[in-house]
Amino acid sequence: MIRCLAVDDEAPALAILADYIDQVPFLKLVGATTNAVEALTWVQQGRADLVFLDIQMPKLNGLQFLKLNGNKCKVILTTAYPEYALEGYENDVVDYLLKPISFERFLKAAQKALALLPGAPPEPTTLAAPVLAATPPPGHMFVKGETKNKYLRISYPDILYIEGLSNYIAIQLPTQRVVTYQTLRELTETLPQPPFLRVHKSFIVSLDKIRMVDGNTIYIGDKLIPVGETYREQLYRLIRQG
């Protein structure tokens, strides 16, 4: 088990990292903080094997953190700025993740870390430390808003359906439509299934919101959503199960 510390000065980004870590069986979240100095102290005490580290932070930025780290643990950089990639790799980072980070890309970076840390010890019970920030409760997700550093919290029960628009998705809620930069494939990896189910190359629906299914058409409110042939069998199997 790889002991992970998530460090980001933006709470929504920190929540996403914590959620992703919780979904990977060989990762264990032992701390999450917006304070890079606090995180460095934790690392120097040997309480983490792997740090997911933002670059742009007050007091101590990610690149300064790397220099002070002294190879005490492995680091995966998480940032919205691609121009720091070369300097990051020069400091021997495991990987460089650009925001918004998909779960698929996150998992690939985690697997790289696993290859480098095959013998990472489990967290000793005698040295267990409190999580520095609470792990987000299930039942919601954060999506990137229309401006830099803006994230919207969306509750899963509010989602009617999600439509793929090339590299964007449109999340349909009862009173609004939220468009964000992400692919439908990436989102499929993170949504709880059920109630969410991909029924077409361009649509994910909430089974709880289906009013009727008629042949190859799903009715959610007044919206008619096509069912792709690839997804038809799974849809009808879940419907028959109630």
Layout: helices, strands, pairs:
Layout (H helix, E strand, L loop, with lengths): L1 E6 L3 H13 L3 E7 L2 H9 L5 E5 L7 H8 L4 E6 L5 H6 L4 E4 L4 H14 L23 E5 L6 E5 L5 E5 L2 E5 L4 E5 L2 H7 L5 E5 L2 E4 L5 E3 L2 E4 L2 E4 L2 H12 L2
Parallel strand pairs: 1-2, 1-3, 3-4, 4-5
Antiparallel strand pairs: 6-7, 8-9, 8-12, 9-10, 11-12, 13-14, 14-15
Helix pairs in contact: 2-3
How many domains? The number is: 2
Low-confidence regions: 121-137
Tell me, rounded to a whole number, the average pLDDT: 82
Assembly state of the chains shown: single chain
Q: Could you say what the CATH topology of the largest domain is called?
A: Rossmann fold
Radius of gyration, rounded?
20 Å
Helix residue percentage: 25-40%
Strand order within the widest sheet? 2-1-3-4-5
Our measurement of the CA-to-CA distance between the termini, rounded to an integer number of angstroms, reads 37 Å
Structural class: alpha/beta
The major sheet is characterized as: 5 strands, parallel
What is the architecture of the largest domain at the second tier of CATH? 3-Layer(aba) Sandwich
Shape: elongated
Number of helices: 7
Percent range for β-strand residues: 25-35%
How many beta-strand segments?
15
